[in-house]
Amino acid sequence: MSTITRAIRACFHAALSLSAVAVVAQERTPIGAEKAGNAAGTIPAFGGSEAPTSGWSFGKYRGDHWAHKDEKPLFAIDASNVDKYADKLLPGQVQLLKTVKGYTMPVYPSHRNCAMPDYVVENTKANEGKAKIAANGWALEEAVLPSVPFPAPKSGIEAIWNLLMRFQGVAVDFQSISTYVSPAPGSDKGILVKAQQVFYFPWAAKGHVSPKSEGMVQAGVYYAYREPAALAGQAIVQRYYFGQDTESFYYFTGQRRVRRLPLYAYDAPLIGFENQLPADASYVFSGNPDRFDWKLVGKKEVYVPYNNFKTANPGVSTSDLLKPSFVSADFRRYELHRVWEIVGTVKEGVRHSSPKKTIYLDEDTWHAMVGDDYDAQGKLWRHKENGVRPAWEAGVCTSAIEYHNYDFVSGRYVADNIVAGGGQDIRVMLEAGTDARLKPSFYTAESLRANSER
User: Fold this and answer.
1) pLDDT at 83
2) pTM of the full predicted structure?
3) Which of 59, 68, 76, 293 has its CA 20 to 30 A from that of 429?
4) In this structure, are residues 150 and 158 in contact, taking their beta carbons and an 8 Å threshold?
5) Above pLDDT 70, what percent of the chain?
6) How much is the mean pLDDT over the chain?
7) Where are the domains of the chain?
8) Fold of the CATH domain 62-452
C-alpha cells in the first residue's frame, strides 16, 4: 500500500470518527443524558428548561405554578401488584412494598425539564480531555468548574464526582427546615428537629476555577439547631475538600466552646437523631468517596421520586405529611426515569457500617435519586430516596424533601429538609453577593464561635 493511499485512508477514518462524535453529541444533552425518550414511550425526550406559570415569585408555593399540577397518578404500586412492576423497582423499594403495611408508590407521567445555566454547559464542554481523577484513585484532581466533569463517565468514581459536582448554584439556603425520625417500635413519639442550614459551593460561581485553586473548598456546611430545647443553640460548620479529610467544628452550648470533631463523617451518626442518620446518607450519598471502590454498572429505567412539589409545601401540616411508618403517599410522586447504577464496595482494610452501597443517579441532573445500603452480612439494611424538583429562581433542579433512610432493622425512617408545618421554601442562590455565610471564612471554628455566642 502506498504512502498516499495510507494517508487517504487515515483521513477517511478520521472523518468517520469525527462524524461519529458529532452524531453522539447530537444524541446527548450537554451534560451527557440521552435526548430521546425510551422505545415504550413511557420516558419522554428531553424537553429543556420549563418556566413556571405566570405570577410565580420565590416564596409562593411552587406546586401552584407548575404546568403539570393537575396530573393524576397513572397507577399505584402496592403489595398486591409489586411483582408486576419489579423490573422497574429497586430491592429496597420492593422490600418496602412487601413488608410495610399500607405502603404504596403513586406513579405519574414522566417529565424531563431540568436544564443547566449556559456557563455550566460551556465548562462541561471544556472538560473534554481535561477532567481527571488523581493518582490516589478517588480525588478530583483536574476539572473546569462549575460543570459536569465527566458527562460520559467511564468509571464509577467519575460518576460519583458528577454527583458531588451536581450544579446547585453557589449556595442552597434552608432558612427554616425540620428533620423527622419516626417512633421506635413500641412508641408513638417520634423526633422532630428544627434547624437552619446552608450549603456553600465556592467553585459554582460563574467563571472558570479548578479543584487546585488555592484554598478551594468542595462544600461548606452550616447547621444550627433551633428545637428541641436540649439541642437549641448548638451548631456545626464543616469544610469538604476535593482530596483531603473533612473538617468539622461543633459548638456546645453547655460548655460555650467549639470542639473539633475529626470523625464526624462517613458512617458516624449525626447528633440528635438516635443513630438513625449517618453523616454520609444525606442526599443518598455525600462526603468523601475514598472508602469505597466504585463500579459503574450502566443505565436502567427505575421509578424514582421526581417533581416532588407537594412534599416541599410549607403550607401543609407535618401531621398530614409524616405518618408513623412512611411519608404519606398523598404527597409522594414517582416517575419513570433513566438512571446510572453505581455499586460501592468498601475497600480492603477500611471499615464502614454499610460495606456495600448501590446508588442511582438521574441522567438529566446527576442527583442521586435512590439508593440501597447493605450490612456486613450482605443483607439489605437501608433504602434511601431523594426527591428532585425545579428551582426556577436559578434555572436548575435541586433536591426537595428527602424521605430517606428507611431502616429495615430498626423499623424506623427519617425525613429530612422538611418545610411543611410553617417552614420556609428552600432557595438556590447563583451569586454570593454580600452574604456573610457565602465566604470560606464563615466555615471556620472562629466564625462558628463568634456567631454562636452572639
Assistant:
1) 97
2) 0.93
3) 68
4) yes
5) 94
6) 92
7) 62-452
8) outer membrane lipoprotein receptor (LolB), chain A (2.50.20)
